[in-house]
Amino acid sequence: MELKLNTSGKVKTIEISGKFDIESTEEFESIFSKVTESNPGIVAIEMSRLDYIDSSGIGSLIKSLNNLKNKKGKLILIGMKPMIQNVFKLAKLDMFFEILSLGDFQSKYGQGDDDADINDLLRKS
């Protein structure tokens, strides 16, 4: 799994690519924790390059959703491939997560170009 962080105003976006499985949940949760330390209003998980997610990855997203809700924040999943979106629909997870296409997200939240690198974020801690 590869992670990339983008920031646009109060929206923080974590891009996930590759496989999100038991081997990558610890890394994701660590990054998510650091991203949410500053209590961002909205965190988006950009999944257009995610090829595979297992129950560990889904569990990690649920944990992240609950943590952000406790901070009065909002988690949005964006750009899911159809096969991954079907997994969320079959498990009825689309009732808990806000799931948007990339276009809908950009028109609603207006993504900018302020990029930050995951390594820079990790160095700040």
Task: For the structure shown, list the relevant keywords.
5 helices; single chain; 41% helix; six-stranded mixed beta sheet; alpha/beta; 31% strand; 125 residues
Report on the architecture of this protein:
It contains five helices and six strands, in the order ββαβαβαβαβα. It has helices spanning 25-36, 55-70, 82-90, 102-109, 118-123, and strands at 2-8, 11-20, 42-53, 74-78, 98-100, 115-116. It has a six-stranded mixed sheet.
What's this, in brief?
The protein is an alpha/beta fold. It is built from five helices and six strands.
The termini sit apart by: 22 Å
Helix content: 40-55%
Low-confidence stretches: 112-116
Number of strands: 6
Biggest sheet record: 6 strands, mixed
**Number of distinct helices:** 5
Mean pLDDT: 87
SS-derived structural category:
alpha/beta
Q: What is the H/E string?
A: EEHEHEHEHEH
Biggest sheet strand line-up: 5-4-3-2-1-6
Gyration radius (Cα, Å) is 13 Å
- Content of β-strand: 25-35%
Topology, please?
Elements lengths: L1 E7 L2 E10 L4 H12 L5 E12 L1 H16 L3 E5 L3 H9 L7 E3 L1 H8 L5 E2 L1 H6 L2
Helix pairs in contact: 1-2
